[in-house]
Amino acid sequence: MERGDSSSWASCNPTRPVIPTHSHPARLTEAQKASRALKTAQNKERSKALQDAIAQFVQDYGKKLHELALAHHVSDDHVKNLIGLQTHYKKTREPQLRNALVHAKSKEVNEGLAHGQKYTMAEVQKMVAEDPNMHNLTREEKKEFIKQLMDHHELQTSGVRASNVAAAWDVVSVMDGISKELHALRDRTGIYATVLMVCGHVNDQIQSTWIATDNASEFWEDRMEVALDDVARQFEEWACIQKKSAGLRALSLTTRMLCAHNMAGRATGKMDITMNYQNYDKSIVLVYGIKLDGWPVGLPFLAPSHMHTVVEVRMLRDTLKTGACQWKKLTRRELEDFREDIKKREEAGEVVGTVRKKCADAGKAPADDSANVSGEKENEPSSKKKRKSRAGKQSSRLKRVQPRSCELIEDSEDEQVVDSS
To answer: Can you list the alpha helix ranges (DSSP code H) found in 223-373?
Structure first.
């Protein structure tokens, strides 16, 4: 049975940072609703005036562009391409000190405030410009502010969502962006692409979906003879029955490598030892005279790949990394006491380790040893006859290939002629 709370992705990963949730704004009063309605009407009027001004500007812009094209004897499209030239590829910029200072000041003045009471970006920027403590900073102070901004970006990028609802909204937003990017890439380059996205746990509120550019979904029906909806459904079923996520599998692998490295390098000095959890007492302790001391309390003695939650694997990983759990070389006296303890447990009826299943012909003599008479050997089936070794097969093959020499060699006629001459 799995251990720990798995109701949300954040509860499955309690040691990872959680993206803080946004607080809901307080309910508006009647006066606030009336004020907001008046403000909305004013915004609509300003937006309509802006749209009219933009339309007039576009009309004048077209006339100016046409006059410019006639003056230089080129087409209107050529001028448009020169004016509107831009690239779709943008490089990632390094964090700037100005943004880092604004982030630090915003975190300082907006922390604890309700959703509608927080300072705007323009107000925070003005506070930064008027704050004397944020001027003439040392190099270390600048690095610290930039580091805080980078940590915030890392949290927003790879932190886990605090609830299933927040995770579902995040998936919807990202998949919408991926869909737009893929279809735009299809228009620019003519590629075909299929993207499948499913939830990873039965408690997730994420709606599984898929994205296919152009008619890429018909490939699955024409060649694979299955609809893309069925593929997504089977993919979701497969993902939900998985006991471990990709992060848990990677963490399990790291923990196993750390345990094996400590056992091989520090305890025994041998590099070809494989950890055996099922027959640990006999295959590891008695054979190599070492013992894993400091195993975490309450954690079952299992291989990291057989543990169910990230908490268990991280607990073992941390104890191995810090040295709280490490391999200990037993003295001769400790090893003898351990051997006596296993012997007493087995005599009491306890099964120590995993007992291998006996073969069906256990206790019977081999067929070749029981047949000592030549007559019996000849009557044995061909499958039970004694097999020849590789060297015997090669020697018999050489005997068959090599020609036998004659006992008497007669002289040929040519040799007789030579002798008579």
So the answer is: 228-240, 246-261, 287-288, 310-322, 332-347, 367-370
Q: How far apart are CA 168 and CA 207, in angstroms?
A: 8
Report which of 399, 275, 281, 262 is spatially closest to residue 343, judged by C-alpha positions: 281
What is the tens place of the pLDDT at every residue in 26-75? 788 888 888 989 999 999 999 999 999 998 988 888 888 888 889 988 88
Q: Give the H/E segment covering residue 222.
A: helix 217-222
pLDDT tens track for 305-319:
777 666 777 788 888
And the tokens for 175? 């998949």
* Coil, helix or strand at residue 242: coil
User: Quick check: pTM over 0.85?
Assistant: no
Distances in Å between the alpha carbon of 110 and those of 62, 98, 99, 116, 130?
A: 46, 18, 16, 11, 17
Distances 210 to 172, 176, 192 between C-alpha atoms, Å:
12, 11, 14
Report the C-alpha gap between 9 and 16 in whole angstroms. 10
